[in-house]
Design goal:
The complex is a heterodimer.
Chain A (H helix, E strand, L loop, with lengths): L2 E7 L2 E7 L5 H8 L18 E4 L2 E4 L12 E3 L12 H8 L9 H14 L5 H7 L10 H17 L6
Parallel strand pairs in A: 1-5
Antiparallel strand pairs in A: 1-2, 3-4, 3-5
Helix pairs in contact in A: 2-5
Chain B lengths: L6 E4 L3 H8 L6 E4 L5 H6 L7 E4 L9 E4 L2 E5 L4 H5 L2 H6 L2 H7 L4 H6 L2 H7 L6 H7 L3 E6 L2 E6 H4 E3 L2 E2 L6 E8 L5 E9 L6 E12 L2 E10 L6 E2 L1 H7 L6 H8 L16 H20 L1
Parallel strand pairs in B: 1-3, 2-3
Antiparallel strand pairs in B: 4-5, 5-10, 6-7, 6-10, 8-9, 11-12, 12-13, 13-14
Helix pairs in contact in B: 10-11, 11-12
Amino acid sequence: MSVKISVSINGKKYTSEVEPRQLLVYHLREALALTGSHVGCDTSSCGACTVLVDGQAVKSCTTLAAQVDGCNVITVEGLAKNGNLHPIQEGFKEEHGLQCGFCTPGMIMAAADLLQNNPDPSETEIRHALEGNFCRCTGYHNIVRSIQWAANKLKETNAAVL
Amino acid sequence: MIPANFEYHRAGSVDEALSLLDQPDVYAKVLSGGHSLIPALKLRLNQPGALVDIARIAELRYIRQDGNSIAIGSTSTHKDIANSALLAQHIAMLPEAAGLIGDPQVRNVGTIGGSIAHADPAADWPGVLLAADAEIVLRSKAGSRTLAAQDFFLGFYSTALQEGEIVTEIRVPIPAAGTKSTYQKFMQPASRFAIVGCAAVVQVSDGTCSMVRVAFNGVADACFRDVNVENALIGKAATAENIAAAAAQAAQGVSILSDHYAAEDYRKHLAVVYAKRALTVVAG
């Protein structure tokens, strides 16, 4: 048995037949070739698979594709516009917010959720907002600086996060 | 990790969900946020034939005052509860505990009804609801019944929830004026589940602890009310000495969990420490 789902992903409508047990992250990566969302721990601890579902950060390894039928999904591939990096991506580049880069897509999507709700977060608030994301290179200091850089850029340019 | 296959149904109302659950020869489970169930399915600890998704049933997602209680719809997310001004005003322990669950992604999706139906011994809601003296409302095709939290949580991953029943509401009595509540936890650093979580609700009248409810998560194979701590403090002056003496009674006579995070003696020590911290917040 399969279920038919219709999902807006990065602004584009996709209609697919999926097995009910299909996890969102595998649907994104294997069926739609959106490989930016990573499978890290596969147990909803590490956050490398974080995507936004209807604007909220969600761990796509612990979400069935069927659960997002009719929803609006944004993955890390959906952030850059017209070949320009999103301010959060730019922040990670400017502040050396990545080392191996494996956790980066999840960090960026968690930061997008934070900055939508709190455009001017303190360092403590940023660290709490990243509780669901692990960086095994342990590069947390620069990740925090990257998000601060992005918050400032968004403020200066008076831009919305999404 | 891929779950075994199952059928998936999304219900638009509680009645529709109850009909979908009632399929002969199909073991159907309720899916809400999925943050307890999906990990269990991935590990194949549970292999239902069908899932009935109730997450989008609008009639189950609310937090509102209903007489002398606050009624919480079962698909309210941890985030909904963490952000509830109504709960913060009347029983601060609930938003406090909600904000300590998992991480932002988990709180965005996980629901209170799903968490209590799963009844993980290290989850935060069970002990909090015991200390809050909450009631759990269950609905089935036969009608609705309301159980005290004490009668709902039966043991290790075990509740009074029957097949064909759905948790629809959690009812938290509004405490008398002068009552304070808190939830203090020592958490596993990756999963953020409770190694020891202590919920405490205390009313202090004229300097005396007139009402005390204390409950633990993570310490034993299920949440429990700690009557030894409660009895040691009820009727006593709210002093640091009395709080310490009451907290020293924590986790007596229960079978304490032991694992590679915290051995039995360390967990018991933590139970005393966290009982003292929680009681100091509400009665100190």
